[in-house]
């Protein structure tokens, strides 16, 4: 019995962390986020691809690393911690999983091979399935898609868009097709790219098994929720570490503010709530990998619970920094906003908890 | 990640399941007032608690790693087996082994630091439930700052003569013995002046006054000592080493205050209750607000349970670092349990306030009792605030509060 990340997983995680520390310090993040510096971003993406983060979940037969979701989860923690301005949860986790469960054999080999060669890169728009809003609706008819969907994620290097309708049927649209309108969405979190997409009679390749089964959409969303939770947890860890560090340096009343119980207890509360988050996160990823029957409940709770705790941490860690925490100068807000956006992605906590209730027959 | 315990444990789990089936519906004839740590249904099989302890020891389900010469099973310590036992007992609601401060705290201390004579004399009857112990640590003026305790012990003619007062002494009224911290070296510094003494509760000069708590049970006592005289040899460790001896046991206590299996049982009872209760004809479980709150609590309980698995794993895999994960369990576990019990009261609304033997009471009034009891546990064994000091200073390496000038 061993509950935790393996040596390999920790090694991979540390590599990604170190890469970001070396190559993406705050001034680089700032350039990419605020000034849309495409060269810096491209360098970062190329570098991280060499570590293989795009290939984690692609089977070895298709040129990937053939690793499991716990690996991806471990990596995602580092991406959140280092506030990586890169695609991951959609392009490199949800897309291969949706294809694995939803595609015909022919589709599967075609797409996965192109993905591992880095020829194809997917952005993901699954909002219609878990929380369609007034203005949006997608309809698939034969091999055409019509309508609008919000919050298409990981559009950074997209060559294709993977979308689904309210029934969980998944299809792939090449960005070379006609009838695609891409609208920039500007969120508070400028480290990532979101779009609204409007389709007009656009050609779509429906993943064959998804018209009869929800396995693909369910698995893709469960996995997406777990890795997004991991991203928030990594970001929360970074915020807590910064808060502790600051509290030891900053002096008021001739004392380090970290020696005041008011400050100390805030940090203890953050740590006390974060520790079980690692546990539920890895447990959820493990349940997913070993296809346990409670895997959906675990994925939902990992996402909603970690979203709640991360929200608390993002507030308290900012407060520990006092006025400086509120400034752009310190850049703490990048993590704060990342956590804020993650919380809503693939379902706000209330939506996700209702799914947890339904999936256990309540 | 590997959550399988392996074939050996699969067989063991089956054995324990069969055992639980056999003893389901056990009922104690000496319904002693000493509370058990879990909930169980009483039934047809009748025996004394002491008999039950003996059966459990014989099977190796209790006192597993305690040498047989002291009345234990005499086996290898096996935390996976311990966990399987705890889980299966909780699932089938048969009574867990007796706990209490004698078994959970004194026995490990004696094994580590007691004399051979003390081990021979006390451990076996304690394991069998024949000697109940109480803990004499806190005093009216020594709570969070325990080391400032003032109960005095003087060595006169080969006997300790004790004067002073203890408070928050659970089970003092049923106990045969007390393990007690006493100031024996008044000239030494605060921590170095304390000794750990074993006091028979029938010694003349001991007065026990029940302290009724908010649940209206006398869960605690005040214990007064007036020239209480006990033999010199009733000391564990040397004179002035009592603080170190006590610290060995405090860590045993903190771990035992928040049991994830009991928490999961309570959550399941809460879900059952929500399926039964109705508001204006609609089941509470279908009310979106209550439902969401339930799921929120379930998420926390699962996270807490997963965390205890991680802590367990670190005991099996020595290279795993779970320092903070282990440190937070008392704080998070007691606070969460209190929240869970309180939420159960909310879903019952007005009916949730019923108490004692009121008509219409649900689940024997257990939700109100536990709601208050767990507030007691949030405070006891190191308050949540003390826990936060420990987590921040020892876990996160934050600077200590500057010391105010010390009084003796």
Describe this entry's structure for a reader.
Chain A folds into 3 domains: 7-116, Acyl-CoA dehydrogenase/oxidase, N-terminal domain (Butyryl-Coa Dehydrogenase, subunit A, domain 1); 122-211, Butyryl-CoA Dehydrogenase, subunit A, domain 2, CATH 2.40.110; 215-359, Butyryl-CoA Dehydrogenase, subunit A, domain 3. Chain A contains 12 helices and 10 strands. Chain A has helices at 7-23, 26-35, 38-50, 69-81, 89-102, 105-116, 127-131, 215-249, 261-289, 295-320, 332-344, 349-359; strands at residues 122-125, 137-141, 144-153, 160-164, 170-174, 180-185, 194-203, 205-206, 251-252, 255-256. In chain A, strands 1-4-5-8 form a 4-stranded mixed beta sheet. A 4-stranded antiparallel beta sheet of chain A has the order 2-3-7-6, with no helix packed on it. Chain A is globular. With 408 residues, chain B is of the alpha+beta class. Chain B folds into 3 domains: 7-98, no CATH class; 132-241, Butyryl-CoA Dehydrogenase, subunit A, domain 2; 257-395, Butyryl-CoA Dehydrogenase, subunit A, domain 3 (Up-down Bundle), CATH 1.20.140.10. Chain B contains 12 helices and 12 strands. Chain B has helices at residues 7-23, 49-59, 79-92, 101-113, 116-127, 242-256, 260-276, 288-316, 323-327, 329-348, 366-379, 384-395, and strands at residues 26-28, 45-47, 133-136, 152-156, 159-167, 177-183, 194-200, 206-211, 220-231, 235-236, 278-279, 282-283. In chain B, the strands form 4 sheets. Chain B has a 4-stranded mixed beta sheet with strand order 3-6-7-10. In chain B, a hairpin with a 2-residue loop joins strand 11 (278-279) and strand 12. Chain B is globular, with a radius of gyration of 23 Å. Residues 34-41 of chain B have low confidence and may be disordered. Chains A and B meet through helix 8, strand 10, helix 9, helix 10 and helix 12 of A and helix 8 and helix 12 of B.
